[in-house]
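Thread: quick sanity check before group meeting

JM: Hey all, I'm pulling together slides for Thursday and realized we never actually wrote out the predicted structure for the chain we discussed last week. Dropping the sequence here so it's in one place. If anyone has concerns about the input, flag it before I start.
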Amino acid sequence: MFEYISAKETAEKWGISERRIQKLCEENRIDGVVRFGHAWAIPKNAEKTKDGRRKENKNVCL
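JM (edit): ok, ran it. Output follows.
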């Protein structure tokens, strides 16, 4: 059985905003999340997802 933590607790653990955690949950980018009314329950052992908004390209020639 999973142990769950809140979006706020996950945000503190991962060092990102609570709103960003909520968006990741809405986009199904965190495995095992469950929604209870207006709150998200996130598995305590969930892995932080990569930020798909940023594109790293270290071989850029200008």
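AS: nice. The CA atoms of residues 7 and 18 lie 6 Å apart. The beta strands are 4-5, 34-36, 39-43.
JM: adding both to the slides.
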